[in-house]
From TrEMBL:
It is an enzyme of class 3 (hydrolase). Residues 324-329 form the Serine/threonine specific protein phosphatases domain. Keywords: Hydrolase, Manganese, Metal-binding. Its EC number is 3.1.3.16. The keyword Oxidoreductase does not apply. The keyword Hydrolase applies. This is Serine/threonine-protein phosphatase. Belongs to the PPP phosphatase family.
Amino acid sequence: MEHHTEIIKSGCHKILEGINSMSLVNLDDQQVHSLVMMREIARGVVDDRDRKVTKNDVITTLRYSIEKMVCASRDIVHMLSRMSYEGLDDQRMHLVLRMKEIAHGIVDKQPRVAITTSEILVDQVCFVDEGARDSPVVDSIKISNGDILIDEAQSTMHEDEMLDVDQVLGFENGIDEVEESLLSSCFQQFLLWPSDDCVTFEWVQDMMFILEKASQKTLPTEFCHVVQTFVVFKLIDAACNVLRKEPNCVEINCLGEDSRVIVVGDIHGQFHDLMFLLKHLGMPSENQFYVFNGNYVDEGAWGIEVFLVLLAWKVLMPQRVYLLRGNHESRYCTEQYGFKKEVQTKYGNQSEDVYNKFLECFKELPLASVIANCVYTTHGGLFRSIHAAASASVNPKQKMTQRVDLGSLADLSQVKRTCIDSPLEGPNILLSDILWSKPFNRDGLRVNAGRKLGLWCGPDCTEAFLKQHNLKLIIRSHEGPDARAGRDDFGDMLNGYSIDHDGESGKLYTLFSAPGYPQFGEKRYNNEGAYAILKWPDFATPSFQSFKSAERPMVYPYLDFDADDTDLSKLDSSQIDIEASTSTFSSPQDASRPEFDFESLGIYNAPSWSVQLPDGSGGSQAVQVPRAPLVEGLPLPPNIEFLQEPHAAAYKYLFELVAGLKHMIATRETENNARVSALRSKARKRKERGHN
């Protein structure tokens, strides 16, 4: 019995330490209440208290915490008022001012910004200087989030509120699970740029962890607080300094006995699939190389996260991670397929600067790679010669039947890759070929008259290119199951890869790494993604592995609005609201909504998931409310008597509906602001052109 008691005490001590050391960021009031209740129960076991913990104990403890927090906030305001900001960079200056604003709000009992108590107590304390670590301010902060004694005189016990310690902790093996569950909810909410500008392995790991948690717990409109513009600019600048030194075609020397190269195709903003690959295959290392064939953004909801993580790895390990450019790394595609809208949603008023910064980085990405002197990788495909490009500039109206001469690696080296969009003509049209070309089942290199971008490359071209450069293999990307649908001449890409050309000198593969593509849209292919593994000593014999889509949070697509030539002065806010609401919410995808039979409770006019909105022409139309990625109030607490079925299902329905309406309003407001900003920008440019 004594041994059993000691095990329980030890487990409770771990729980006590875990809760006291954790950040409560992103926990709602009910979760904080439950954690404090659990902590006091654990403390009672550790301290051999006989009495039971009640809800009033928790309320008293929280009240004491708030009082301590207010006192600490007063001290913080006083200290920051006397503090010199000299020597602080823009990032830390922003956070110090934010902390001061938060502290003022707490003292005034009217918080000026939306931020959790735990952020104040845990995250902001890092800005107290070394000399102040033993000050009352720091002590108060520690007390507020640490050991708090219960004032028993203020507790009133009621039998129906008592919790039995043995009932909660009547297990031994569950202790570790409770501790792990508690600690897993503790994560740093925002990413700080290294003070010495030195990206480390630990920093990249922290970044991946923060972004993965934020994708599950943070609304897109709050992403700018997770990764501030200062961090984005710093990371992009560091990456560009590396990328611009690389040639158009990078040579990857990986001839060590234990070396292997992993080639990845289109990702299209599917961040959680990228995380799966890095975790499953292992991070870049001395013997493990990664080559990414482009199309990091668009179509999916997390293009920013995908690209930032890959840039971080590029900065950390520039000789082990290679990022090639895809056709979607352009202004044209990102305006059409969602990335620009993603940036606008996540960065609001700062989105134009952030978006342009990403475009600057896209221009620096190299176009192809040669692995171990035998494998050529690129995004689109083969390309015409410089001579053929010059001829095309003279006579741009080439027919599809007209052949063009095949280019070489020497021609590739002369391409000016700093064009943000692929040219339709001119000597730099090779850039369009490299990013947009596709394999064809007939011999020859022909202009793609339908797309007007890129070429159709026949098997004879693949054979000639491999033979000319003594290569054995081409791995390209650019095409997924949507591009192959209805075509019998090539593989359907449902397993993530296809052998498109197989000749005497070698093969051409197409590789696609976005499973369950597209993330949004009416047509889903339920395809697998794939990656290629090239190993020493025979890099020319790849191993292709397919993988299924990783679990990811439910989000809604970033629909683009049409920034036409509407005169802003004639466009009122009501018109903008109507257009934004009807375009965004009329056809939500993959959004199964909870259902409940309110008539069983005698309610015959229950709220539905449909709302009537003006259609802009004097009438109205029914618009479906989208489900929100985060729902306040859920999950419902299990220990409330009246929240039993069927009432629990009714509460869940209503909480979901309220959250959906809030999400709908917030998204529409973001889109309105972005639309107004775009129209103003366009009007300003027209005005400038008029003056010129």
